[in-house]
Amino acid sequence: MSSLLIVSVLAVLVPLFVSRVTWIRIPIVVGEILVGVLVGKSGFNLIHTSQWLEFLRFFGLSYLMFVSGLELDFKTLRPEKFGKHRGFRHSLTDAPMFAVISCALTFGLSLLFSIWLHEHHFIKSPFLFALIITTTSLTVVVPVLKEYDLMQTAFGQHMMAAAVFADFFTMLFISVAASLFKGGQSTSVFLVFILIFLLIALYHVFQRFPALTAVRNLAHGTAQLGIRASMALMIIFMALSQTLGVQVILGTFLAGVLVGLINEQEKTDVFHKLDAIGFGFLIPIFFIMVGVNFNLHSLLVDPKALLLLPLLFLATYVFKALPILILRLCYPWRQTLAGATLLTTQMSVTVAAAAVGLKIGAISSGVDTAIVFVAMSTAVISPVIFGKLLPARVDQKKSRSLMRRTRPPRRPVSPSQGQ
């Protein structure tokens, strides 16, 4: 119980400390991992694993994937209406098409690299490792876009579409990769798609029942029906995942997608409450425990994992940034490079995928440590570089017509000057 007490207190202190650090942007989740490293195996070793902590860590990971599913906005993946001035160049940079192309190219390059690593006995599953490199962190990308007021701009929609598709693609196939690694060409791989068919079926069922007044009245107060139903769906998908032999994180991720689609028109209240449950309690415990289990010794004593660290860092930036250069067709170089840097950010899904790989034996403890270290590094470095590269005029509310390739002014234009 003392370990749980320490973790709970640290979960309160980390946001307070991070908010005081103004000279560099540190995501709270990175701060939670770092403080976990400080009190864990690689630090003062103050935290000792217990059934309580293991349960909360597992449930925190599951809930993190649930919230990741909630954050997916499939509107960004809907193709734009065909216009008379739309040509091949515009089609190539259309947000959904751009998302698919950039993710496919990143995965292809990562797979070639992973096959090379497998041939040299760095890893055991090239498919899973390629997916890990392809992951992107919506939990970092979304706050950064909001901070620079880019969510409603064309440029912001390109960033969101790429991040959403990368997260959905990797989460879907991580479970397939894990099944293939455990059972070869096992038929259990196809059980993954049972969950997807169930998601589609439940979505259509819920669409047929309009929101009744009685149900609306139970959405608040002591009933909180929306929250209860959301949690029930998450646990149902967790149970089905375990029954089918599918990774639980995929089940909870799809449950989050379903809840998001059902509440697409009225997200605010339900989503804020679900966010509060996750980021107020469960998710910080998971990230602190990631830091607690961060075994720096396993990295230092594993020569291959130590060699993999700089290779993985370089591969992450190169393989994820190169496809984003397609944006140069409609944006200036600085804006394009800023977007390429932001989309190299990794964190939540990356850490979860690494945890799956470690659990099934596809990667060693040292490689897992290297993956987490690279993910933390990108979550700190990429948003800072993004802010430095971003042209001044993009950091303004009025920049709605970003598709026009105008030269940005050297100095920011204040709102009063822009009127």
Structural commentary:
- The chain has 419 residues and is mainly α.
- Helix content is 69%, strand content 0%.
- It contains 19 helices and no strands.
Structural class: mainly alpha
Q: How does the major sheet shape up?
A: none
Q: Per the principal axes of the C-alpha atoms, what is the gross shape?
A: globular
Total of helices = 19
Computed Rg: 22 Å
Low-confidence sequence ranges? 395-419
Strand content: under 5%
Q: State mean pLDDT (0 to 100 scale).
A: 80
Task: Give me the count of strands.
Answer: 0
Distance between the termini: 59 Å
Task: Assign a percent range to the helix content.
Answer: 55-70%
Order of helices and strands: HHHHHHHHHHHHHHHHHHH
Topology:
Elements: H1 2-20, H2 28-39, H3 51-71, H4 88-92, H5 95-119, H6 126-134, H7 138-147, H8 154-183, H9 192-208, H10 213-217, H11 225-244, H12 248-262, H13 267-292, H14 296-300, H15 303-321, H16 333-342, H17 348-360, H18 365-389, H19 415-418
Helix pairs in contact: 1-2, 1-13, 2-13, 3-12, 3-13, 5-6, 5-8, 5-15, 6-8, 6-17, 7-8, 8-17, 9-12, 11-12, 15-18, 16-18, 17-18
